[in-house]
Every structure is written in C-alpha cells, then in structure tokens.
Task: structure prediction
Amino acid sequence: MPPFTHVLGPVIDAGVGKPQTQLLRRLSIIRELIDQLPAFDFFHQAFPTSAADGLAFQEQGFDLKPQYTFEIDCRHDEKTLWGAMHFKTRQHIRRAEEKFTVSNVDDPNVFIDFYLDNLRKRHVASHTDFANFPELFRQSRARDSGMILSARWPDGTPAAMVYLVWGHGRMYYLLSTRAANIGDNGSINLLIWSAIKHANSRSLVFDLDGVSTSGTARFLSCFGGSPKLRMIVSRAGLAYGAVRHARRVLLWFPERETSNFT
Result:
C-alpha cells in the first residue's frame, strides 16, 4: 500500500447488465489483473467496505481477513449527530472545550515533529515514513481535501493533533497523535467532534478509519457511528512469511505503532 493510503481498491467499470452479470465480469477483470502482478515477497491491500473483489483473490490463494471500522453519516443535522454519541463522550467533549482551543495547523512539519516526539516519549519506534508528508499535505490543502486540526492548551502548547482527508463523499480520520499529559482527558474526543462538524458542513460520511485493538473499538464506538467491514487481502512468500512469523513470535515486533492513536 502507498504511504498514508489506508484503503485501496481496484477501479473497474463492470459495464451494464444484471447485478450477477456485472459481478462475474468484475471478478473476471480482477483475475486478469492478479495474473499481471509482478513477483513479490509480500502483498497487502485493504479493500473498501463495499468491495466483493476478495472473491477473486481468494481463488488465487490469497489470505482474507476482516477489519472493522466505524462510519458516521454526517449528512444528518448537528443536533442529531451530537445526540447519537454516548453521554460520557459528550461530557468529555464539553470539559475539553473548557480547556482547549481547536485550530488549523498550516505547517505540516509542526505535525510531524509533534507526532514523532510523542512516540519518542512513549519509547515507541515510528514505522511511518514522513518524507513525502509535507508535499502530500500541501497538495491536499490546495485541493481543499485535507486539514490538520490541533487542540491546544491556553499557553499554546499542543495536546493533540489529527490529520483529516476527504473526497468523493467521504472524510477519513487518517492520522492522530496525543501528548502524554495527565491532565488531558478529552483532547482527541474534542478533535473527533470537530472533524464530525467539518464533515457535516460538507455533507460527508466520516470514516474513523479502522479498528486495530479492542480499546480502539470501545473508544470509537462511542461517537455514534455504525460498524462496517473492510477486507484485508494478503499473501506472503515462504521465506518472507517465515521471517515475519519469527519476528512476531520471538521478538514481538509490532508492524506499526497504531492505526489511529499514539
């Protein structure tokens, strides 16, 4: 998967006809694409919630596993969106509004430095390559399809930041990071609520972008969204698979710091 791309599905025109005819045609095209893949040691791709493309990959010996995400239909009015959240989440947001100010971050390097510094303080290695992030952010800003939001203490010190991107009717909660402050009990809650309001102003569906742990699932479920399924397709060669398994079992090597939180 390309950097900062959490969902990627083949773009295929299945033509016209009955639903089953279109499905069979689509799967046939995907099989042809699979046959054209170059040699690889490891393949990994996350498909959108509606994709049935895994059928073709399964036939070709790829492994499939589900990944849950939460979606919030922000085309509803703001009052309805607020009421759909768990009451304790609303309490956290109200308290956070008393402590923090939410603002846009114009310099992508401010986000990068804050993100990496938070990982260092937690003694967690970063597996995210930020080399292209400044240009990615500038291009998304130029196309009105991305923003960085920051929750700051009264003295201007950042407590948390999130990077949001949107397009084709959807907004994605792509990256977030939070400082390890004892007194912070709601900065991320506040930023997610701010993102919901931004998605509402654009009539978008807000995708909270994947559930990596049971704790993440409990946290994200409180924002009133509906659980949706994505599909992860992967296949590893024998040598790569053996090394990867050894790292997991013997070294407990994390593949990445987290999907959503640091």
Remarks:
- Residues 253-262 have pLDDT under 50 and may be disordered.
